[in-house]
Amino acid sequence: MNDTSAVAFDLAVRAHGLTKRYGDVLAVDHLDLELPAGQFFGLLGPNGSGKTTTIHMLSTLVRPSAGSVQVAGRDVIRDPVAVRASIGLVFQESALDRTLSVQQNLRFAGLLYDLAPAVIEERTRELLELFSLNDKRDRPVGSLSGGMRRALDIVRGVLHRPRILFLDEPTIGLDLPNRRRIWRFIERLRASSGMTVLLTTHYLEEADSCDQVAFINSGKIVRRGAPRALVEALGKHIVEIEATGLAALASELELRLGSALVEGDVAMFRYADEDTSALAALQVELAGRASALRIRRPNLNDVFLWVNSLR
Amino acid sequence: MILRPIYGVIEREVVKTFRQRTRLVSAMVRPLIWLFVIGGGFGAVLGRASGADYQQFLAPGVVGMTILFGAMLAALTMVYDKESGVMRMLIIAPFAHYWIVVAKTIAAALAGLIQGVLLLVILAALGFLPSSTNYPLLVLGMVVTAFTCAAIGALVSAFTRTLDNFAAIMNFVIFPVFFLSGALYPIAKLPVALKAAALLNPFTYSVDLLKHAMLANPAWGSASELHASVDVLVSVAFTLLAVLVASWRFSREQAHEPFIHTLLGKRGG
Fold first, then answer.
1. A64, A208: one domain
2. Is residue A1 assigned to a domain?
3. Could you tell me if A79 and A209 lie in one domain?
4. Nearest 10 degrees: Cα torsion A205, A206, A210, A214
5. Residue to substitute from B10, B13, B80, B89, interface A, most A β-carbons within 10 A
6. What is the 3-state secondary structure (H, E, C) of B234-249?
7. Cβ pair B94:A84 closer than 8 A
8. Is it the case that residue B252 has pLDDT exceeding 90?
């Protein structure tokens, strides 16, 4: 069972009934997932939803309690070594030796993946160039900024040219310019290699560029689809009404606008019509009772909120 | 398939050994202090003639000590690696997890051996390597000692979650292993309980082998107390067993799972 040669596959991930139990807690609950090769897939959900446990099971680091999983055409329980040879992993906590230099880290990582030194050297040069880290080659990793360390972690993750890249909250803790930078690099990588990317995040702006997303909650996938389609299914607009003492007002408005999603002082409603002129009258009506009425386009954030409100 | 990763682990350990220069220097100073201060002090108590002899007697123990500290501390970095990002690099790599312990043990043995050789050069310069030294046996002895000590370190690492209680490891493992061997005194004259402990200590056999090599002059007679072949046999057997247990324990524990547990709180993540 030591054959780690690549097999052809059209499903990067095929999971059926994937389950993880910790004592009497069900972290992942009979999850099904089929991810076509080459896709950019986002797994979204709040903390504690089971998304990190799912990714750990897919990457052979946690043993499933039940279910079958094949990643890159290999069985995760029977052939974990073969799976690990085809996948790249970048987690929230970096997998780097801070006392060694950038180049030494990549050499070490490359050797662990059984890459020849000449190959490591060539790919190191190529990737450091792509991620603008060339001038940091001999710097100790501990001296790099958080953003550069994360970029280096991704370089480490793709050094062995994996067929599938797992990114667990890759931009968490980074400021906006760094997050944008990381995303540009990943896009460039995908464009040149056709690598499948599975991402977990709770930054929904990042999820917008995925081909497909799945919302996970309490260990189950509760909604999946293309981001655009999921957003369009919500309606043409979101109406936000802000008021103190919202409860009474909200239930009154529900009769006219449909079910409300209340967040603090704001009640949100889905509006199916493109034409919002009818809302002008509502605005006048609510003049004394509401402090604001806003009309805006729906986004993935709203999908997330509405999905989670069903629990 | 597994050779390059093992080589990678070894290379990293060697790079770190030579890079941490102050650590390397203090690793040389420690045994020399023992040799001249403790050796000199007790030597004086034992009287003029046996004094010089006591320092010579101490030389193999001091070489052993250097290898013990070098290999054990290198092996213990496995625990530190669990807390830093390095263990993560190792468990996501495409080879079975039990090889990690094997690779680390070899790397730690090499680190200990390098330090032992450096000390030996210093001892030779100071005249502690008499012409009667059995060099082939010395090489064998140092290699065996290095692997035995690395194996002890691997065993401790496999059962240790954090290095916060490193002082406990020093006091309950490293020092007893050193003191309850034949490094400082012949074990034959020890009280029964301590003698039994010394005979259960794998390091005793390593030091004895070093004595065979360095105190080969027949005038020493019974300085080395066990048969050289017994020394080699026990050391090798212990090393293999320790690495086996450590590997099994390590891949069972799945180093990361408890870590995930504490991160996730109630419902997983």
1. yes
2. no
3. yes
4. -80
5. B89
6. HHHHHHHHHHHHHHHH
7. yes
8. no
Residue B127 has a pLDDT of 86
Cβ-defined contact of A28 to B268 (cutoff 8 Å): yes
B8 contact residues in A (CB cutoff 8 A): 107-108, 110-112
Give the CA-trace dihedral at A267, A268, A274, A278, to 10 degrees.
Answer: -10
B268 in contact with chain A, both atoms CB, cutoff 8 A: yes
Cα-Cα-Cα-Cα torsion A27, A63, A215, A52, nearest 10 degrees, comes to 80
Residue B102 contacts A, CB cutoff 8 Å: no
Please state the ipTM of this predicted complex: 0.86
Write out the residue range of the structural domain in which residue A247 sits: 230-309
Domain harbouring A36, CATH code: 3.40.50.300
CB contact under 8 A, A95 and B5: no
Do the domain assignments include residue A2?
Answer: no
Work out how many CB contacts closer than 8 A connect A with B: 115
pTM metric for this prediction: 0.87
Residue A89: inside a domain: yes
Q: Where are the domains of chain B?
A: 3-264
- A245/A178 same-domain check: no
Is A101 found in the same domain as A75?
A: yes
Q: Please check whether residue A3 lies inside any domain of the structure.
A: no
List, for chain A, all residue ranges whose pLDDT scores fall below the cut of 50: 1-2, 311
User: Nearest CA of chain B to the CA of A133: how many Å?
Assistant: 20
